[in-house]
Design brief:
Radius of gyration: 71 Å
Largest sheet: 7 strands, antiparallel
Structural class: mainly alpha
Number of helices: 44
Helix content: over 70%
Oligomer: single chain
Strand content: under 5%
């Protein structure tokens, strides 16, 4: 507005201007300025106000934060940590909530602080205060965080401590429970319960074992507690207590486990012993009742039972052994029941030993009886055998003395001699057996020796027959001798041929050598028999010369067969020798094969267990070792090849095990190749590892070098000016050395990359090493450059000039070397010059860098010096000279390289020409081999040559290519080089051509040699088989015939199979001939020979097959004939048996068996005989060569069959007759057994009462009815006996009559016994009728006596009269029963009169009856007299003592009772007055009391007379006193032995002196009611009998003991065992403690105390001299008192509270006090209170009771 108005005035065009416009403008400008200034001031103030608001807001927020921090500080500074686990957990929860709140508050605080810092950065006017407040707040926050951490730590420590305490409490609770379980004394009551306890304890033991980690964890918790808690004695004491209790639990667990195991073993012993004893009892009963039978069949039955007993005994023996073993274990463990265990063990062992002795005794007896029976059986068989041989000798009488007869005799006698030797040996055995049995059985000695004499007689008869037959032969003996020798030789020949023809093959080399030795021994034996063979041939020719008899012709055939067999024996020996030789070679191959396999296994193991070395030296050593190993493999390769060649040779010769040999060879070859490949592979790996180790070693060396150079590069000691230049030069040399050695790094880099490219598995190691090297190299170069720069900066000008001078000097020397014309005269000199050239080039490269650096130096000088032209000129001069020398250096290098190439080419050409000439001699060789092996070897060598040629071809091509290149470049002489190259090409073409030609020639030679080899093998094999086919060997028996035929079939099949091999050989020959082989004619000839030989072999095989079949059929017939004859001979022995059976069962068995035998013989025998005849006819009809012998065999079989059938019929008739006789014996034995059984079953029992007697009478009637049926069988037996006596005579008839008599005698005895029993049963009935009457009367009289004795006692006169009336009624009943009594007495007298068998018992019953009747009458009369006199007894109990009172008559008793009641009431009324302590408090009261006392004395005087009347004795009392005195005089027993209290025996007890009287009664002395009068001074009556006194004394002692006893449940701990020895078990135990008789006894509980079972450890402690006090030093438990015993033991006891503690201490102190003299002497002090009175407060009550102890108290 103002500006507009001012503008309007200042721009007004009218002439009226109130003021100068300039003034207006100035004023306006001034106004604007002032306004702007005001606006600026307003803005500034607003800004200051905003900043002030921010400041106070910041202060307010800071104050709020400080208040919150102070609040939380108070919380965190609290010392409350609670006293239990729950409280600590609650505080920890609050602490975590506080920490969460702090975390949330921290962000707001940081935001506030950031705001303050922003204001500080903005240079706020309150910066100082802001910074101060921020610092204070941050300090408070840090303090708060520290407090939070500290409180959290404290809470965690408190948590750990309380957690430990809680866990410790849990462990204590568990330990107490486990201790209670482990210390349990329950050991079960039987085996089942103990097994259950064992299972329970096993679970408990497992729990204890598994609880060990919990305790270990508790220790770990204790170790983690804070220091002040962890080091507290209470904590470690508690841990020690826990450990101690746990050890105690563990020990108790082990002890209880052992105890349970011992108890299980004990129960097992008891059960096993019981089972064994039951079994032994059963078997002993059987053995004791067993009788050794006389029959063989019965003996066999008994023996079978003994055999079945043996396994049972073995089983029981094992049980006995188990019992002994368990018992030994228990005894070894010191079982508490050692005595019982030993008793059980000894008892069982003794029973078992006795049982075994009994078994051995019975077994020995049985064996002896069996020996006798077997002896008789052997005697019968031997006798039959001798008789049979006698018949055979007698049957030879019909044979003549010609050859046929002699041969027939020879056949029979040859077997006879063997039989006679066997019979003689049997006789010797029987004699020894007879002597032994005669000694063992003297009662049967005659029978045993008699049987032996019979056999001796038969044996002498046989020998005489044989001797007579030999004497009758005469001249035929020589012929017989020859035939015997011929048979022996043929037998030897057959055995030898069998031994040689054995197909046993050796399985080992030792067996092969053994068989070779045996085979050689056979050869020597054959040579020894050579002379016998010649003698045999000569004798045979002499015997058969000129003889035409068929038998002599047969003998001549035998001699011819002997010759053939002899020749065949030699051939067989040769063949066997060849076969064994091959087997020997085969076993040697196997042995060498095993050795080779061992080599290969060793090689495989070494190759598989070779590890890669970790250093270069070890790697090279491993390579050398591997190369040595491969050298060893090469050395063993000859051995392996030899074994493989041997195997192939054996397989190619047609060895039986050819396939196995080839498999073995292939296996060896394969394993050898694998080992070779593995060795090569391992060598490659080792070489690769060596490269890696070499690389690592290079890296290590370079690392060491770099580290060494790093020290030099980091050396900065160059401050002195005088050695600055030398340091610069040294550093330049150092840098040059670095540049020259950088190739080392590059070489390592290159080797590493090459190694990675070849072996990718080394990439990680190589890369790591290379990275590290490059990093170290870079550091080294950096330090070097830094040092160079520092040196250069130190003296730039001097260094520059010196550098230029050095370069000029070096360039001059280099120029002289480049201008040399020496380029080398040979390859060696050229190589040396090239190495020098390479060194110059490296120096040039280094100097080139120095030249480049000169320019840098010039620039650096330009910064310090203005004139640098001279320095730059020198630099350019050096640079120009340096570049001028580079081109000559390059040209010299080219010349040297060209010279090296030329010289190298000439050297290679000469080497190749020399190599080709060396191989040319092999290619031009004309040696093609003379056999298959040599040809194969030459082929392998030629193949190797061809491989070498092909492998060398690239080198030749390279030389030719280089020659063309060199000729093209003009570096070689054309004539010389071209000529040498042409020679090389010509020789190379000649070598390749000759090698190909030689390969073709060797292939043809190999085919021909292979054919020859196969043909030779075929001819050898067929020749061998042809020799076998042409053999004239004949089988000597069926087995050898079958063997030969089987072997021939195998050979024939092999011949058939060999046709394929011949066909392949023919095909090969045709192929070679068709191919135009140089040896075609020779090949065709060999093939035709093979074909002819194979055709001949086939014909020989067919012929030998036919001969073997014919021979086998003859042997089959011979075997069948022998089998049939042997079968019939065996049947004849059975059919000719004279055994007629030993009893009925035996004869039935014999009959049944013989019927079966006859049926089988008829069926089977006829079939076998027909089959033999059919086969014989077939052989005869087919024209067999031995048809005559076949016919003879046929006739012999038919005759033997007819004889056998006749014997069977005879045996059948004999067995039928024997059956009748044995049937009679059986029936007689059965009837007699039944009679005896009835006799045994006739019981001796006559009954226990009337009912059983009647039952037995009825049973006897039924028994008599049963035996009537048995009489019919007896009559039938009599008829059979009469019939058999008429059929038999002699001993048999007498035996039949004896059996009949035995049966009849037993029958009559049975009838007599039945009669006697019937009479005895009748007498028994009468006896029991009498006994019943006696019993009834006795019971009635007992009832009457009971009524008499049970009548109630009269209380007054009327009751006495009533009792007397009742007693008269009893008398009437007794009179009524007199008749019955008379009947009973008459019956008893009648039984005694007829001499009853129970007369003594009847007499006793009669006496008892009369005595009882007399007793009843006496009791009635005594009761009647008693009622008349008023006798009665009254018993009253007073203080535990029983007093017997005998009053006078009834009226006297009633009067005394009345008067005594009144007197007692008066005394009770006056007692309160007498016991009053009131003496009066004034004269009046005293006078009143005196008057009252006078009145009392008057009253007492009045009562004096009444008491005197009461003291007078009644009539019955006087009688009783007199009776006791008489008894006392009769006994003559001292009064002191019947009474315990001596001083009181002579006291005169007055009824008025109640206190003295009570003392006596209380002391245990029983007195009668009436005593002597006091004025008479007579002694008191005799006390009551001793039993009452004894009972009283026992009660008194019990009361005394009960009064002196303190008992209760306490916790006990055994602390000390002696003065300086702590107890081994210091655990707390909860026990029942009883203090009595100066002893403290411990029980487990009240039940154990009632049973008397004390606690195992310290069951009883003597309290004599013991001390008891409160255990003040023991702080672990409350209410504990200590007991110190005189022997040094100390115990701690814990009670429930202090009162109980005091009670126990007082009780122990009272019990430990010494006993007084009166008690020690066993007498009572007269002034002392009576026994049983302990407390003084009870004295008055006792005295009160004692005063009135003589009066009965009213109920």
């Amino acid at each position: 507005m103002v500006s507009v108005s001012a503008h309007k005035f200042s721009n007004s065009n009218n002439g009226s201007k109130p003021c100068d416009p300039q003034v207006i403008e100035d004023r306006v400008a001034h106004l604007d300025f002032c306004y702007n200034e005001l606006a600026q001031l307003a803005a500034e103030r607003r800004a200051r106000l905003d900043e002030s608001r921010r400041l106070w807001k910041f202060f307010w927020e800071m104050a709020e934060e400080e208040g919150w921090i102070r609040e939380k500080e108070q919380i965190l500074s609290s010392a409350e940590y609670c006293k239990d686990l729950t409280g600590v957990l609650r505080l920890l929860g609050k602490q975590r909530a506080l920490e969460d709140e702090m975390s949330g508050r921290r962000g707001h605080l940081q935001k506030t602080v950031a705001e303050g810092q922003n204001m500080v950065q903005e240079d706020h006017f309150g910066t100082a205060k802001i910074q101060e407040r921020i610092g204070d707040l941050q300090a408070q926050w840090a303090s708060l965080e520290q407090l939070a951490v500290l409180r959290k730590k404290k809470l965690q420590e408190a948590l750990a401590l309380h957690q430990f305490q809680a866990d410790a409490d849990d462990v204590d609770a568990w330990t107490l429970d486990a201790l209670r379980v482990a210390s349990s004394g329950d050991m079960g009551h039987d085996e089942f319960s103990i097994q259950a306890l064992v299972r329970t304890h096993k679970d408990a033991a497992t729990e204890v074992a598994s609880y060990r980690p919990v305790i270990d964890m508790l220790h770990e918790q204790a170790s983690t507690l804070p220091r002040e808690g962890a080091e507290s004695d209470e904590l470690w004491g508690r841990l020690a207590g826990i450990e101690e209790r746990f050890r105690e639990v563990s020990e108790l667990t082990k002890l209880r486990k052992q105890s349970l195991q011992d108890t299980v073993s004990l129960y097992k012993i008891v059960s096993e012993v019981a089972a064994c004893e039951v079994w032994i009892d059963e078997k002993e009963q059987w053995l004791n009742s067993m009788e050794i039978p006389d029959k063989l069949e019965d003996l066999e039955v008994v023996q079978h039972r003994f055999e079945s007993l043996e396994p049972e005994m073995n089983s029981q023996a094992s049980r006995v052994a188990v019992v002994n073993q368990i018992a030994r274990q228990l005894l070894h463990n010191a079982h508490p029941g050692e005595k019982d265990i030993r008793t059980q063990q000894d008892k069982l062992n003794n029973r078992w030993s006795q049982f075994r002795d009994l078994v051995d005794q019975k077994k020995e007896t049985l064996s002896s009886a069996l020996g006798v029976q077997n002896y008789h059986l052997d005697c019968n068989e031997t006798k039959s055998w001798i008789k049979e041989k006698t018949k055979v000798i007698e049957s030879t009488q019909d044979l003549g003395n010609d050859l046929a007869g002699v041969m027939a005799l020879q056949r029979k006698v040859s077997g006879m001699e063997r039989d006679l030797a066997a019979i003689e040996q049997k006789l010797r055995d029987l004699r020894g057996e007879a002597l032994r049995l005669a000694d063992e059985h003297p009662d049967q000695c005659d029978a045993i020796t008699g049987r032996l004499a019979e056999i001796g007689a038969v044996w002498e008869e046989l020998k005489n027959s044989l001797k007579n037959r030999e004497e009758s032969l005469g001249e035929a003996r020589k012929l017989q001798q020859f035939l015997r020798e011929l048979d022996d030789f043929q037998s030897w020949l057959s055995r030898t041929q069998t031994a040689i023809a054995s197909e046993d093959m050796p399985n080992t080399l030792a067996e092969a050598e053994k068989l070779m030795g045996q085979h050689q021994g056979i050869r020597n034996e054959i040579q020894n028999y050579e002379e016998d063979y010649q003698k045999m041939r000569d004798m045979g020719e002499m015997v058969t010369r000129g003889q035409t008899d068929p038998q002599y012709m047969f003998l001549r055939q035998r001699l011819q067969g002997l010759d053939v067999g002899w020749n065949e024996l030699h051939k067989m020996w040769e063949n066997r020798h060849k076969l064994l030789s091959q087997s020997h070679v085969y076993q040697m191959f196997l042995r060498d094969g095993k050795q080779v396999e061992a080599f290969l296994n060793n090689q495989k193991y070494i190759l598989a267990h070779t590890e890669m070395p970790a250093t270069l030296d070890r790697a090279e050593a491993a390579i050398r070792k591997q190369e040595d190993f491969m050298t060893t493999m090469d050395a063993n390769e000859d051995k392996i090849n030899s074994v493989m060649e041997t195997g192939r040779s054996l397989a190619s010769h047609g060895k039986v095990n050819g396939e196995r040999i080839l498999e073995r060879v292939a296996s060896i070859d394969d394993r050898h190749k694998k080992n070779r490949e593995a060795a090569v592979e391992l060598l490659i790996k080792l070489k690769d590892n060596r490269e890696l180790q070499k690389f690592l070693q290079d890296c290590q060396e370079l690392t060491l070098w770099i580290n060494e150079k790093m020290l030099t590069a980091q050396d900065m000691t160059y401050d002195e000016a005088r050695n600055l230049h030398s340091n610069w030069l040294k550093h330049q040399a150092f840098m040059a050395e670095l540049q020259s050695n950088k190739e080392w790094l590059e070489k390592i880099q290159k080797d590493g990359m090459l190694l990675v490219s070849e072996k990718a598995e080394t990439e990680a190691v190589v890369t790591e090493k290379l990275t590290g090297l490059h990093r170290m190299w870079a550091d080294l170069e950096c330090n070097t450059q830094t040092k160079a720069q520092c040196l250069f900066d130190a003296n730039k000008a001097e260094l520059f000039m010196q550098s230029c001078a050095d370069l000029n000097e070096w360039l001059g020397g280099l120029e002289g070397q480049i201008q040399s014309d020496d380029f080398g005269k040979d390859l060696t000199s050229v190589n040396i010059l090239l190495k020098k050239q390479q060194m110059l080039e490296k120096q040039v490269e280094v100097r080139q860098r120095e030249v480049v650096e000169l320019e840098t130096h010039v620039k650096a000088l330009g910064q310090e010096v203005t004139d640098t032209d001279q320095a730059d000129g020198r630099r350019q001069l050096v640079e120009r000279k340096f570049h001028e020398l580079l081109e000559p250096l390059r040209r010299r290098k080219d010349f040297l390289v060209a010279s090296k190439e030329v010289h190298q080419f000439n050297r290679d050409v000469e080497d190749e020409i020399l190599w080709v000439k060396e191989r040319m001699s092999l290619a031009l060789s004309n040696d093609h081999g003379h056999n298959l092996q040599s040809v194969q070897l030459l082929i392998k060598k030629n193949q190797t040559l061809q491989k070498e040629i092909r492998g060398h071809r690239p080198r030749i091509d390279d030389i030719l290519e280089r020659s063309r290149r060199l000729l093209k470049d003009g570096d070689l002489g054309a004539d010389t080089t071209g000529r040498r190259v042409s020679d090389l090409q010509l020789l190379w073409r000649q070598l390749t051509g000759e090698a190909e030609l030689r390969h073709g020639r060797l292939e043809e030679a190999h085919k021909a040699q292979q054919f020859y080899f196969d043909a030779a093998e075929a001819e050898a094999w067929m020749s061998e088989q042809e020799l076998y086919m042409m053999s004239e060997e004949k089988a000597k028996d069926e087995q050898s015939s079958v063997s030969m035929l089987t072997k021939h079939q195998i050979v024939e099949q092999a011949v058939e199979d060999y046709a394929e091999a011949v066909h392949l050989l023919s095909k090969t020959s045709r192929g070679l001939v068709d191919a135009g082989h140089p040896e075609s004619e020779r090949i065709s000839t060999r093939q035709s020979q093979v074909d002819k030989l194979y055709a001949s072999l086939k014909d020989l095989s067919e012929e030998r097959q036919a001969k073997l079949d014919e021979r086998l059929r003859l042997f089959l017939l011979n075997r069948e004939v022998d089998d049939v004859e042997q079968w019939m001979a065996e049947r004849e022995v059975v059919a000719g048996s004279h055994e007629l059976g030993q009893d009925y069962e035996h004869i039935m068995m014999l009959q049944e068996r013989f019927r079966e035998f006859a049926r089988d013989t008829g069926n089977i025998g006829q079939e076998r005989v027909d089959a033999v005849n059919r086969q014989a006819d077939e052989l005869i009809n087919s024209g067999h060569g031995d048809a005559a012998a076949v016919a003879e065999w046929k006739d012999g079989v038919d005759e033997a069959w007819a004889d056998l059938l006749e014997l069977v019929d005879t045996r059948t008739q004999i067995l039928a007759a024997s059956f009748e006789l044995h049937k009679f014996y059986r029936d007689a034995a059965e009837v007699q057994a039944r009679v005896l059984d009835k006799r045994r079953k006739l019981p001796e029992e006559v009954g226990r009462d009337q009912n059983t007697a009647d039952l037995l009478q009825r049973a006897h009637g039924a028994f008599e009815h049963d035996i009537h049926a048995l009489g019919t069988q007896v009559r039938q037996l009599q008829e059979d006996a009469g019939r058999l006596q008429s059929a038999y005579a002699g001993d048999k008839a007498d035996d039949i009559q004896r059996r009949e008599s035995e049966v009849l005698g037993a029958w009559n005895d049975l009838l007599d016994a039945c009669d006697r029993r019937r009479l005895r049963l009748l007498d028994t009935g009468d006896k029991f009728r009498f006994f019943n009457l006696v019993r009834d009367l006795m019971m009635w009289m007992d009832h009457v006596i009971w009524i008499i004795e049970a009548q109630e006692k009269p209380r007054d006169v009327s009751s006495v009269e009533l009792l007397m009336n009742q007693h008269q009624g009893v008398k009437a009943e007794v009179d009524a029963r007199n008749d019955n009594l008379s009947v009973c007495v008459d019956l008893g007298k009648a039984l005694l009169a007829k001499k009853h068998y129970a007369a003594q018992e009847i007499k006793e019953k009669l006496l008892q009856l009369t005595d009882k009747r007399k007793d009843m009458i006496d009791k009635w009369e005594d009761r009647w007299e008693w009622l008349q006199l008023g006798k009665w007894q009254r018993s009253r109990s007073d203080g535990g003592a029983t007093v017997t009172v005998s009053p006078p008559a009834v009226l006297e008793v009633q009067q005394f009772s009345r008067d005594a009641g009144v007197a007692e009431a008066w005394l009770l009324g006056q007692e309160s007055y007498l016991s009053s302590r009131e003496a009066g408090r004034s004269v009046d009261e005293v006078e009143k009391l005196l008057k009252r006392h006078e009145a009392f004395e008057k009253s007492a005087a009045t009562w004096e007379e009444r008491f005197s009347a009461l003291e007078r004795l009644t009539t019955m009392e006087l009688l009783e006193v007199r009776r006791q005195q008489e008894e006392e005089e009769q006994r003559k027993v001292e009064g002191s032995s019947c009474i315990h209290v001596q001083p009181q025996q002579s006291d005169v007890v007055d009824r008025n002196d109640s206190s003295d009287q009570s003392g006596v009664v209380g002391g245990g002395v029983s007195l009668v009611n009436g005593l002597a009068d006091g004025s008479s001074k007579e002694p008191s009556p005799t006390p009551s009998p001793p039993p009452i006194e004894k009972k009283k004394s026992s009660k008194t002692s019990i009361v005394s003991e009960a009064a002196a006893t303190q008992e209760g449940l306490l916790h006990r701990k055994h602390q000390w065992e002696g003065p300086n020895k702590k107890a081994s078990n210091r655990s707390w135990h909860h026990v029942l403690c009883v203090v009595a008789k100066q002893e403290m006894t411990f029980y487990k509980d009240a039940k154990a105390a009632a049973q008397g079972a004390t606690y195992p450890s310290h069951p009883r402690v003597s309290l004599k001299g013991a001390a008891c006090e409160v255990a003040g030093g023991y702080k672990k438990k409350k209410h504990v008192f200590r007991l110190r015993v005189a022997d040094g033991n100390q115990f701690l006891f814990q009670a429930k509270d202090e009162e109980e503690t005091s009670t126990w201490i007082q009780a122990v102190l009272d019990a430990s006090a010494p006993v007084g003299p009166s008690a020690a002497n066993g007498t009572l002090d007269p002034d002392a209170p009576p026994p049983g009175v302990v407390e003084s407060g009870a004295v008055k009550t006792k005295e009160k009771d004692k005063r009135f102890s003589l009066f009965g108290k009213k109920k």
